[in-house]
Design brief:
Shape: globular
Largest sheet: 11 strands, mixed
Distance between the termini: 22 Å
Number of strands: 17
Oligomer: single chain
Bound molecules: zinc ion
Order of helices and strands: HHEEEEEEEHEHEEEHEEHEHHEHEEH
Number of helices: 10
């Protein structure tokens, strides 16, 4: 059976290893703790009985839970990432286990100015009596995504102990450096050989993330004419002013992150640098409808044309680079990935919630590469923050959900 205490002890063990991703490390994975945690996971997978458990030169951990059914059924994969966000330190995590939670605000003992308030976390009110885990307030907790690791490890132990549960081959995939955008760089999809994959990296319970943004990046290069200011009259074209004019022509009270939510897309200028001769801007283009990205790019080109008309002698080059695509585009080609996840929750008398992500996930990259990969709940909350917390019973539900899911794929 699923063992909540074993699940908890795994989770507590993993969060105490510092696996903070480092933005400018110049190596992969970006921090040694990720390799260390990977080694521990391989050992534990072998103890569970997954004999092929291995860590690649890039720190990627893979293993197979062998099929218990004889007929050929699709191979599926479960993925979590071992690294934690660089936004808050993950060094010296001291997890606090609050049993039989009483519904009150949680003051964190290492820094009492850090309080997890029910007003900001209304879902806590539904979790009275449950087991809540927090950090001591001086670090993040690392439930993003060590809750996912613990859930997949507990699933592996559960399935190995219950060989009467009918399932096909299940591949375990633990990746590195997801938080700095490199989670999929060294994943060998051919070797993984899966028909569908699930990232275990979602918040709360019962959610299935089925859509992400489609995303492009525009690099805008503004060129002016530089000359000494003392003799600039009639000759200087200042790229700083040209760039400012260009930005002022972009939508601000609509189509911006500051003014949109839910399914609305945006244009987001987030980097500007340069001088009189040349300035560069970086602008994010985001929309759930991939076709709308072309319209956003067109707006940039129109603004560029209007600006250069107002500044004779200037030029603006708009270079749009593809980043990632809405997961829904690829999931449509393998509808079982989502429908079986919904069915697994229904079998547990739970209400599946199909959700959208205003960003990208490793699942959106994997889906784009041809491996349909929705994201599932793991009981994590408030990621990347000292106020991060997790709920043990939600993690346990995630294991139970996966145990149903593998059976559906074997039918
Ligand atoms: Zn994550």
């Amino acid at each position: 059976m699923i063992d909540p205490e074993r699940l908890l002890s795994r989770f507590l063990r993993y969060v105490q290893i510092d696996t903070t991703a480092r933005e400018d490390a110049g190596r992969y994975p970006s921090s040694p703790g990720q390799l260390e945690l990977g080694r521990i996971l391989v050992e534990e997978l072998r103890e569970i009985g997954l004999d092929d458990a291995a860590q690649s030169e890039f720190g990627i951990v893979t293993a197979t839970i062998p099929a218990t059914v004889k007929k050929a059924v699709p191979t599926i994969a479960f993925n979590s990432h071992v690294d934690t966000s660089p936004e808050t330190t993950g060094a010296g995590v001291k997890p606090q286990v609050i049993r039989n939670y009483d519904g009150r605000d949680l003051v964190l003992p290492g820094d009492t100015s850090k309080v997890i308030r029910t007003a900001d976390n209304p879902e806590l009110r539904e979790l009275v009596g449950r087991t809540i885990i927090t950090s001591d307030g001086t670090t993040l907790l690392g439930a993003d995504d060590k809750a996912g690791l613990a859930v997949i490890m507990e699933l592996a132990a559960h399935l190995k102990q219950q060989p009467d549960i009918p399932h096909g081959p299940v591949r375990v995939l633990f990746t590195c450096d997801e938080e700095i955008g490199h989670g999929v760089d060294h994943v060998n999809l051919a070797a993984l050989g899966a028909t569908a994959c699930y990232t275990l990296d979602g918040r709360g319970a019962d959610e299935i993330d089925v859509e992400t943004f489609s995303a492009d990046l525009a690099i805008v290069t503004v060129r002016g004419v530089n000359i000494h200011p003392s003799i600039g009259k009639g000759k200087m074209v200042n790229a700083v002013r040209v760039a400012a004019d260009f930005v002022s022509r972009l939508p601000r009270d609509q189509l911006s992150p500051e003014t949109t939510d839910e399914r609305q897309g945006f244009l987001h200028p987030y980097v500007i640098q340069g001088g009189v001769a040349e300035a560069t801007l970086k602008i994010l283009l985001r929309d759930f409808d991939t076709a709308n990205l072309a319209q956003l790019a067109e707006r940039l080109r129109r603004a560029a044309a209007d600006t250069t008309a107002a500044f004779p002698g200037s030029s603006i080059d708009v270079n749009v680079i593809q980043q990632y695509r809405n997961m829904a585009d690829g999931l449509a080609r393998e509808p079982r990935a989502v429908s079986y996840a919904q069915e697994a929750l229904k079998r547990l008398s739970r209400e599946p919630k199909l959700t959208i992500v205003r960003g990208g996930t490793d699942g959106s990259r994997l889906t784009e590469l041809g491996l349909p990969t929705p994201n599932l709940s793991t009981g994590q909350h408030n990621p990347h923050s000292p106020l991060e917390w997790a709920c043990l019973e939600e993690m346990q539900q995630a294991v139970a959900m996966l145990a149903q899911l593998v059976q559906l794929w074997a039918q």
